[in-house]
Fold this sequence. Notes:
There is one protein chain. By secondary structure, the protein is of the alpha+beta class. 31% of the residues lie in helices and 25% in strands. Strand 1 and strand 2 form a beta hairpin.
Amino acid sequence: MNAGRVPDDERHRRAFFDSLVSGDAAHLPLCLGISLHTQHANARPGLALKITQAALQAGQLQRVMERRFDQAMAFDGCYIYLDTQGALLIWHALPAQREAVEQILSRMLSLANLEALDGFASR
């Protein structure tokens, strides 16, 4: 596995998605400072895309906010906030269907303009 990158083998991806769908804790680094993990909000399970403050690009927060509200229907269900360390989080509630999880992940990465990290889009 490459340090800081999504594991390229199907076994790691499947284990990550199986953990998500089953409600178990899951964490998957995409690259240095950017990761996916489970996170509850108001006792509701969800998927969070976390971009640490060090990994944020100049103006990225503003662009994410603009895209979220300019394309409200496309990014419906995506919630944007900063954590106490200044990391940008994009959260979405978890659906039961695995296929829907993959679509949500792709939408979250698109919202953050991180499509290049979407190793799940073709699956």
